[in-house]
Amino acid sequence: MKFTTLFSVACLGLLGGCELDSSNSHNSTDYKKNLIGTWRSVHPEQEKYLVISRNNFQELNKNQYLDCLASQGDNSFEAKARTLTFEKNGPEIEGYELTENKLTLLDKNSVSTQFERFSEALPTTCSAPDLQERWVSAGDDIPYYLEFSTGKYNPYRILEDYACSTSLPFTYHAHNNKFFMSNLHETWKGSYTVEGEQLTLNWHEAEFFNGEIQALDLQHIYNIENQPINFCSDPSLTKIIESKIGFKHLPDLLENYVPSTIDEKLYFTVSILFDMDSDGTRSSGDLNFLLHYEYSNKMFQSSWQALGAKVLITQRLSPTSYLQAEVTDLNIKIEENSLTLSADAANFKLLNNINTGTPINVSVHAQFDDQTQGDSFPNNISGNNNEQYTTGIDSSYLEDYIDDVSISDSWDITPLVDIHSVEISIIE
Predict the structure, then answer these.
(1) What is the value of pTM for the model shown?
(2) Closest CA to 365 of 256, 292, 281
(3) Taking 50 as the threshold, does the pLDDT of residue 294 lie above it?
(4) Residue 155's beta-bridge partner residues?
């Protein structure tokens, strides 16, 4: 690491100031210099590598199914004396410690991973250049598109009412005609072949986050598609919609709230419905910010931020039925007793129509076995708030009654779902 030696400088002159050359000050220290290179995890059971250049921080992990090193993505980064900062969706690394040949990374939970310099050739990295095309499903009435790029498996779904397509990318890796796909809650394994302009995907196995493994016999066939896609995204839009719910009580981690004896599922749902046409009902085009989580000791334990939340759009089929399609991801943030779900209009352009005058319905629900908790805003005497929205109200800050949770049976723990406040913020 480069250190700067400061010298004492005598300045002469009664009226003039003394200007010092700051080009060698600590602000210009090149902290990246000693990070550059290839690093290997020292953990004997963890085959993990880092490949760091001046402009890129790449993680490589051994994928046992594919028998190759799978990239976790390329990330531009900045380095300071003890911290690394990444672009959006980069690794969640809070800090690092560096000696000549040892690098220790610290995540946000203060869990450390140690690496040592690696000078040999890397093992085989996963590669499937024959997939790098846009594909369209064969024989379907409604076209379904796939696109593969930089480790992302992008399935595009067409929203017929809006004549545009949405994408919810998954992480994928492929090598030697084998295919591996994952998201927060499941992994899929299979094989693929490319013959001429036709892609065949065969799915063999799916593993879910509760440990369940299901054998599969599914085949999907696609053809190369060169026609442009009309996306529902619009990179020129800058609006961000933040919906913040304040609770009377909110644990740092959901597993800290659930009794350790629970083996069955606990369901936890947060829903913020936006009545886009202000008709007072859930109708086609209405948007829903939804976090839906299932937890038990047999399932993974994770932070709120890793749960995953989605924006859904409504399609009303009849007065008593409707469908909801996922259109983009939500960002999750926890601060003390508040939960914030935020969405970028650039990812789904209909979000740009939301403002603080858009009527909303907020509901939170938790259920374990036959025990339930529920709270909503605005409140409804009948207890059924699914179709009640705010009207003529600025939703920048709204207060709800506390201690008004609807609870069945007797819970011996503090209610989780007691809404205290709701704030809708529009950031341009």
Answers:
(1) 0.72
(2) 292
(3) yes
(4) 146
